[in-house]
Design a protein that fits this description.
The chain is 61% helix and 5% strand. The protein has 87 residues and is mostly helical. The chain has one domain (2-68). α1 packs antiparallel against α3. The radius of gyration is 24 Å and the shape is rod-shaped.
Length: 87
């Protein structure tokens, strides 16, 4: 998923800057009442949000699987200090 997100955001960069924006630089047709020149970047922003949500979910799932595979962790317990007994 990381590779897909990287490729997507590189395509996003090209699509909303000069080389990729040229085909969308028109007033007609209108998309949802917006000229194509406004709808084009808005579509990429919405798609970028969706890709980021999917990336977050896949990374969270991967972290949960890694934590379950490595066994329980005791983060709240500190190891005893050397030289201190019974305190």
């Amino acid at each position: 998923m990381r590779r897909f997100a990287t490729v997507f955001f590189l395509a996003f960069l090209v699509a909303v800057t000069w080389p990729g924006y040229v085909p969308a630089n028109r007033m007609t047709p209108s998309v949802l009442g917006l000229p194509l020149s406004f709808a084009w970047p808005a579509m990429w922003v919405v798609a970028g949000f969706i890709v980021l949500v999917l990336l977050d979910r896949s990374e969270t799932r991967r972290e949960d699987e890694d934590a379950a595979a490595s066994g329980p962790r005791h983060r709240d317990r500190r190891p005893p200090r050397p030289g201190r007994r019974g305190r």
